[in-house]
Amino acid sequence: MNSARSTLVAGVxxxxxxxxxxxxxxxxxxxxxxxSPSAAEHGTVRVIAGSDQVARARELVxxxxxxxxxxxxxxxxxxxxxxxxxxxxMARTGIGGFILMGANxxxxxxxxxxxxxxxTTDAALPPLIAVDQEGGDxxxxxxxxxxxxxxxKDQPAEAAGGAFAARSALLxxxxxxxxxxxxxxxxxDRSMFIFRRxxxxxxxxxxxxxxxxxxxxxxxxxxxxxxxxxxxxxxxxSHSGIPTSGRTKDEWIATDGVPFRxxxxxxxxxLMFGHLSxxxxxxxxxxxxxxxxxxxREELGFTGLAITDDLGMLQASGLxxxxxxxxxxxxxxxxxxxxxLSVMFSSVETAPRIVEGIAAAADSGILSPDRLEEAALRxxxxxxxxxxxxxxxVPCGECAPVE
Length: 403
Fold this sequence. Notes:
Elements: H1 3-19, H2 37-42, H3 51-63, H4 66-72, E1 74-76, H5 83-93, E2 97-100, H6 109-119, E3 128-131, E4 133-135, E5 138-139, H7 149-152, H8 157-173, E6 178-183, H9 203-217, E7 222-228, H10 249-254, H11 257-265, E8 270-273, H12 290-299, E9 305-308, H13 312-316, H14 325-335, E10 340-341, H15 350-364, H16 369-389
Parallel strand pairs: 1-2, 1-10, 2-3, 3-6, 6-7, 7-8, 8-9
Antiparallel strand pairs: 4-5
Helix pairs in contact: 1-14, 1-15, 3-16, 4-15, 4-16, 5-6, 8-9, 9-11, 14-15
């Protein structure tokens, strides 16, 4: 191991020790919360396009270097609409996903499709191109005039299904394969940060609309439930702190957990973990909590792709333990996330730094190599599903105008 990587490993280990997430020893020892090797080899992955995608994903991941596996589980961002710069960024980093923010959205849908084509440097294994397209308050695409939670929370569930079916088709047409759009949080408190974005004011109402939204999105852009385990019970804004809820496990099951269970049962493809703390269950933010990942997988039966909310938000909390983006990414993967998302404080060098840090952690045993393999398998399967189903895939750089 070279000196730069040794320094990086030491820094990550130090940060993880502060977080209480470092493994008990080096070498091959595996933390109790890590999956067994068989989980990486035979891990349950939601299959939409067919079992051949899983088999192909296993072949691809088996042939990857540690660095390539590390890159595959990173979703990055740079603020640009320059197709050449974006294509270069994806080719240089080799990362598995890209999130479009406001600074990436050009003036027209046709131009956006050309931009997503530039991001798709490999049509056989396209990146997961994602966007926060909830509609209403969180809408990156100004030409999306479909219903949002602001109005849908007062309408029958069928209205949510129709709005998200249309929204998902719009994204697919623009070359976007993933929508971080279905807010499964629930609150009846108008003063709460998440109120206007929540699809319901009661668990049952929210669950019905979440169910309809997932069904409406089916077969088009991949659907995402957020912000697990629920922002509605945790006052504050997770963009600048770690909102905390005093709810117990039983209380959560009967309230905030209801829309998430329903959305998972409906077949949601992706589950986004929020920077939210429920100390009665685990004091750590859910993004860094092995227990919340266990609950999602074992108790709610989620078999899809687990992704973090923007890890830059942890840095924005100002808390000393979360100021190292590499340590945050390694801790998030160790907890059970399959993909780490980085937006705030990102530059063209952020994703490469995170990739190198993840690879170094896996090489040194700080991060279980089996956990990284499992994560890479889920992400690679999802990318193959995008390719097979044509979700978000633009086959060439010379795009025809969108009707």
